[in-house]
Design goal:
2 copies of one chain form a homodimer. With about 400 residues, chain A is α/β, with parallel strands linked by helices. The first copy, chain A, has helices spanning about 20-30, 45-50, 60-70, 85-100, 110-125, 150-170, 190-195, 195-200, 220-230, 270-280, 295-300, 305-325, 370-385; strands at about 5-10, 35-40, 50-55, 100-110, 130-135, 175-185, 210, 235-240, 285-290, 330-340, 340-350. In chain A, the strands form 2 sheets. In chain A, strands 3-2-1-4-5-10-11 form a 7-stranded mixed sheet, sandwiched between helices. Chain A has a 4-stranded parallel sheet with strand order 7-8-6-9, with helices on both faces. In chain A, strand 1 (about 5-10), helix 1 (about 20-30) and strand 2 form a beta-alpha-beta unit. The two termini of chain A are about 25 Å apart.
């Protein structure tokens, strides 16, 4: 008798949509009458046997719905980089045998796709019939071979909404002022482009948008700020956390905490603060910096319905493909058209995606060009469309679905 | 013929509800068939003649509704401290004569009530028949003689919702970590109490809540963090921006920018960052700090319906009282009962409110006491209740009402 059960786990940084993909996987498993296990803390839960049967906790459609609207990872996460040691693979294989696992679904970013790739290849090598499928997620939108990533649309919606509100806030005084808003994006500027939406849509000028793909020039930045605050205008500069100097070094090296995670990424912080000080040194006016911080990846109350629905489908379709004996694949979105917006899900070999990074395309770097701004709007706006209605308690605070670790 | 027109202005820091009070004033003026002018940038617009007729811009009920849901100040703001010079009063008096003003409504915090008080007293002194009424607002909830302030409920709702979401986000890793969330509150901890709501409601432990009313003790803080992160638990500490040491000095003096506004307040920043460094120095674990920053006062998409409705009514009633020849008063809320929640608006002499500050009461400083937590919930929860539906464009981004300065 073949191994028939499913195991699913989540990995990397949270998004508002990653639980929606989990909900899609669970939905498909339940429809297919298959046992589905959840591993807590990503691959680490498989290594450490922190595994729970999910079927019992999702007996009602309402449970699936509630999970769909819950931010962050209901199964927890990890940033564990799988070694290529036989010992570690053996633990995984034994664990899968223990739970009679035939299908492993891993929801995560490009680091997690590396884990999917390694496990799928090893299983093929040793002729082990367990299917391994990667479901993408990342607010950063930096995975290649997919039109966009699940989670990006909701983060983009939070950012565009918040910038719209901040514009109202900073416009109240009739004095020149500079507000620097720091947005997530270690090496790519996708989310910072979303911060441009309120400007692009309303033809507001001046806007200052700095992304990692364009080497930062102190002189240009100060010049643009100076132009902006003429006529007592308050201005907003939106900047990616990972801005780089012309020599490729990160801006404000000394603002960094110096911590490095297990994939070798340096934790960045403080580009906003760095630029705040830079402006203060050069221009006499009110300057503040704002970091949108974790709110941009967990503000589920502002999720994009399009994003959550798509994330659900890509999870559902991922398991569908695994059950059709596909393995070593990552699910992707293909855009059929922007207007009307229409996408399909399909898949690619996961090794084509793992450890690769999609940058903002060169032609979009001409960001102050209205034609380019229109192209950016055409790309992002469909992804943020649609509002969701989260479950609230009697005081109108959100209630989120918790998966019990010990059931 | 008596002076019959109305002038209204807004002052101090923004809230999500201050435009709702403005909408209430405009609504009453229009119902009463009286000309109403708006002064841009608070009292400065009166001094500098930046005044616009509002009736034309609010001909439809929809215009009033849209204004109600718009964050920050549609008429702009100022932090101008009125001198007591005859020269300045003369400019104001002449401006009021120029526009045939009989009623002046000023919406603002305790500094603005000082302006109301000065002008009302001067007018009485010289027997000038112009009524002056203050409409309170401040997210800080620090005005005395009122149950709470317009704007507090919406800020509290943003904070409680965001903390609920952040708890999900920081809980994903199975490692000890400390997240410090810095919340507005220069001298009072009202908003930081709101950050406790998700903990109080769910009996989550441990919670660390630090407010300016309780002298900060480094040793206690570190001890509490140490207790919290046992068992690999991620914890959140919520702290007011204006934490003070036992000697009354602000925490992390060297984190301050050193800027002082015209009322002598020092601009604070960086208590979160200061505590982040303090924890890092003492405990080996992941530490981050998050500043909720301007979002807590301008996130109109998360406004409390109760707050906006009350703010509208207090504006409406403020003008009603002015038209009944009341002057030198500030409007206030009186709570009749918490369950069912019921308040009325009334008024007090503005000099009783101006320049005074309502602190969190002494008996509530025993904040880890469940009985006290219940009292805090009874007080705050009714204020955050009810969701609003803001106007959105076709891409589901908010559209806000703009008052045209030049019409």
């Amino acid at each position: 008798m073949p191994n028939t059960n499913i195991i699913v786990a989540q990995s990397g940084g949270p998004t508002s949509a990653i639980n929606s993909s989990l909900a899609g996987v669970i939905q498909k498993a339940i429809e297919s009458n298959i046992k589905i296990y959840g591993s807590f803390y990503g691959i680490e839960g498989i290594l450490n046997d922190e595994i729970v049967l999910l079927n019992n906790q999702f007996q009602k459609q309402k449970d699936i719905e509630d999970l769909k609207y819950t931010p962050a990872m209901a199964l927890g996460s990890c940033r564990y980089k799988l070694s290529n040691s036989k010992k570690e693979f053996d633990i995984i294989i034994n664990r899968f045998k223990q739970y009679n696992i035939g299908y492993f679904l891993y929801i995560g970013g490009n680091d997690s796709m590396d884990t999917v790739d390694k496990i799928a290849k090893y299983f093929k090598e040793i002729n082990l019939d367990i299917k391994v499928v990667g479901i993408p997620k990342t607010i950063d939108n930096d995975l290649i071979l997919t039109d966009h990533t699940p989670g990006f649309g909701s983060a983009a919606k939070y950012i565009a909404t918040t910038i719209t509100e901040l514009i109202r806030d900073i416009s109240i005084y009739n004095i020149p002022s500079v507000t620097i808003v720091e947005i997530m994006g270690r090496n790519t500027g996708w989310l910072t482009l979303a911060a441009g939406i309120p400007f692009f849509l309303n033809g507001l000028q001046p806007e200052i948008i700095c992304i990692p793909e364009v080497p930062f020039c102190e002189k240009d930045f100060i010049k643009r700020i100076r132009q902006g605050i003429t006529n007592n205008t308050p201005i907003i500069a939106v900047v990616s956390e990972g801005l780089k100097n012309k020599d490729g070094s990160y801006l404000g090296e000394d603002c960094k905490t110096g911590l490095v995670d297990r994939f070798g990424h340096t934790y960045l912080s403080g580009v906003g603060k760095y630029l705040e000080n830079l402006v203060k040194k050069n221009i006499e006016c009110k300057v503040r910096s704002i970091e949108l911080n974790l709110m941009q990846r967990c503000s589920a109350h502002l999720s994009s319905k399009t994003d959550l629905d798509e994330a659900f489908n890509i999870g559902y379709d991922g398991l569908t493909n695994a059950l059709k004996d596909k393995t070593g694949i990552a699910m992707v979105y293909n855009r059929i058209s922007s207007s009307p917006y229409n996408i399909t899900t399909s898949y690619v070999d996961v090794d084509l995606i793992a450890n690769k990074e999609k940058k903002v395309p060169d032609k979009w770097l001409d960001i102050y060009n209205p034609k380019i701004q229109k192209e950016i709007l055409d790309y992002i706006l469909p992804l943020i469309k649609g509002n969701i209605s989260i479950k609230k308690n009697e005081f109108d605070l959100p209630i989120y679905k918790i998966i019990n670790k010990t059931l």
